[in-house]
What we know:
Blueprint (H helix, E strand, L loop, with lengths): L6 H9 L11 H15 L10 H7 L1 H9 L5 E5 L4 H13 L4 E7 L4 H6 L24 H8 L2 E5 L1 H15 L5 H12 L9 E3 L8 H14 L3 E9 L4 H11 L3 E8 L9 E9 L3 H13 L3 E5 L8
Parallel strand pairs: 1-2, 1-4, 2-3
Antiparallel strand pairs: 5-7, 5-8, 6-7
Helix pairs in contact: 3-5, 4-5, 5-7, 8-9, 8-10
Amino acid sequence: MPANTPFVKVQQTRAFGAKVVLIGETIAECKPEADRIAREQGMAFIHPFDDEAVIAGQGTLGLEIAEDAPAAEAVVVPIGGGGLISGVSIALQALLPGVEVIGVESERYASTSDTLAGRSRDYGGQTVAEGIAVKAPGDITLPIIRDRVSDVLVVDESAIERAISLYFNVEKTVAEGAGAASLAAILTNPECFRGKRVVIVLSGGNIDSRLMATVIMRSLVHDGQIARIRVHAADIPGQLANVARIIAENQANIVEVEHQRLFADVALKSADIDITIETRDREHVSEIKAALNAAGFVVSELGFETSRSS
Length: 310
């Protein structure tokens, strides 16, 4: 497996008795080592996607969709090397001939989309969807995708992160980045699916708890339920108490407070008070800022990009 594979996936694979070797950044970079081990130890190499039996096995998902959602008009499937979408499209179009099968890739590894369009470029970099971080479609899968898949959409990291958060907060479901890509495609391209009966494939839940916690916290910031504000104040006794009182009167909870006197660009006899607060939504944040402004404080909101010492 790639060296950046989520620990939970590694741990659960080992729990089945497998020996896991972590090497390289992507699935393609793992293959030479897998070939060497297979050759030296007399093992059979089973390709993760470019194998007819693997494609057929993954195609059973298409059988389930046809049985459970026979009225489906579109099915959205994540694409890494293309094994899953190949099997699903073969099965679905045998049973539901009118259904559209649409693929989704991460923009950092949009190898199938680029290949179909006759483009070529370098792929790489960290992605939350490491499960579909594949630099080239398979020799077997590419012709199937070309013949059977209606379109391949490309989504960025922020859309995938948003989809993971929505699965967790709305559906109470844990989704890894690769699994959430299909929902990210709908969030990014709603016009493609409006008015249709759509099935989205969630193909995995292997996401480290630390990363999941980060995604949840970032979504709270995005929705305004956690905000970080900077209050510019005179450095005199009682100012922090006044600020805290105003925040409390506006029904927000203070999570963290930090004074900036020495390292920030702050005038002498002044202080910047950085405060992290829990709020209802973005409108609530605006109400708190307005109340502080009305009391004579100068307030700014800090985003992701603002460092603690800025």
